[in-house]
Design brief:
The structure holds 2 protein chains of 2 kinds. Chain A starts with a strand and ends with a strand. Chain A has strands spanning about 5, 10-15, 20-25, 30-35, 45-50, 55, 65-70, 75-80, 85-95, 110, 115-120. In chain A, the strands form 2 sheets. In chain A, strands 2, 4, 5, 6, 9, 10 and 11 form a 7-stranded mixed sheet that branches. The relative contact order of chain A is 0.32. By secondary structure, chain A is mainly β. Chain A contains no helices and 11 strands. By secondary structure, chain B is mainly β. Classes of the chains: A mainly beta, B mainly beta.
Chain lengths: ~120, ~110
C-alpha cells in the first residue's frame, strides 16, 4: 500500500460546527504532516508529527487541533472556524530520519488527495 | 529568510514542444530539492534530488540540481495535454529543528494546447 488516504473529500461546515478530518497511511512512515493550501498558492505547513509526537506547530490558531492516535492515523479537529479557513487541507507522510537505512528519504513526502473544506 | 523561487509562473505551449521549468533557492540547512506535479488535487511526487550534477529521468521528464549555483531545472520533452498542471518545486531541510519542513515555491502553471 503506497498511498495516503484522506476523508472526507469535501466538507461544508458552519462557523459553530465541530468536525474532524482524517488521514491514514500504511507505508510504515513515522512522520506525518498537515498542510493548508489556498487557491493558486503552494501548500503551507501547519503541523508535523514525528513518532506520534507533535514536533512542529507553525503558529496555527487553536481552532485547529491535531491528533495522532497511532502511527498510521492523523486527525485534524476543527472548531469555530472562520470563512477564511476555507481551503484544501492536505495530509502527507514520510520516513523519519531515525530510520537510518532510509535517512536520505525523509524529505520525500507523499500527499493524500486532500479535503476541500468550505466554511460558511 | 528561506525562499524558493520558480520561473516562469505560467507557460503555454503546444503538444510536442519541450519545456524547461526553473527553480532557484536560498535556504539554510539544504538537504534536498523535490519536484511535484499538481493537477486538481494532491501534489504527486516526481523527483527528489540531493546530489549536484546527477540527472534523474522518468520517461519524458528529467531534472538536475546545481548546488553551487542553487538551482534546479525540470525538463519535459514531447509535451502532451496530460502534462498540463502546476509544477511545484520544494526544498527539504536537514533534520533538526526544521525536521520535515518543505519550503515550496509558488509553482509554474503549464498549459499544453493540442
Amino acid at each position: 500500500d503506497t498511498e495516503v488516504t484522506q476523508t472526507p473529500k469535501h466538507l461544508v461546515m458552519g462557523m459553530t460546527n465541530k468536525k474532524s478530518l482524517k488521514c491514514e497511511q500504511h507505508m510504515g512512515h513515522r512522520a506525518m504532516y498537515w498542510y493548508k493550501q489556498k487557491a493558486k498558492k503552494p501548500p503551507e505547513l501547519m503541523f508535523v508529527y514525528s513518532y506520534e509526537k507533535l514536533s512542529i506547530n507553525e503558529s496555527v490558531p487553536s481552532r485547529f487541533s491535531p491528533e495522532c492516535p497511532n502511527s498510521s492515523l492523523l486527525n485534524l479537529h476543527l472548531h469555530a472556524l472562520q470563512p477564511e479557513d476555507s481551503a484544501l487541507y492536505l495530509c502527507a507522510s514520510s520516513r523519519n530520519p531515525r530510520d537510518r537505512a532510509h535517512r536520505d528519504l525523509y524529505n520525500e513526502q507523499f500527499f493524500g488527495p486532500g479535503t476541500r473544506l468550505t466554511v460558511l | 529568510e528561506d525562499k524558493v523561487v520558480q520561473s516562469p509562473l505560467s507557460l503555454v505551449v503546444h503538444e510536442g514542444d519541450t519545456v524547461t521549468l526553473n527553480c532557484s533557492y536560498e535556504v539554510t540547512n539544504f538537504r534536498s530539492l523535490l519536484w511535484y506535479k499538481q493537477e486538481k488535487k494532491a501534489p504527486t511526487f516526481l523527483f527528489m534530488l540531493t546530489s549536484s550534477g546527477i540527472e534523474k529521468k522518468s520517461g519524458r521528464l528529467s531534472s538536475i540540481l546545481d548546488k553551487k549555483e542553487l538551482f534546479s531545472i525540470l525538463n519535459i520533452t514531447a509535451t502532451q495535454t496530460g502534462d498540463s498542471a502546476v509544477y511545484l518545486c520544494a526544498v527539504g531541510l536537514n533534520y533538526g529543528g526544521s525536521q520535515g519542513n518543505l519550503i515550496f515555491g509558488k509553482g509554474t502553471k503549464l498549459s499544453v494546447k493540442p
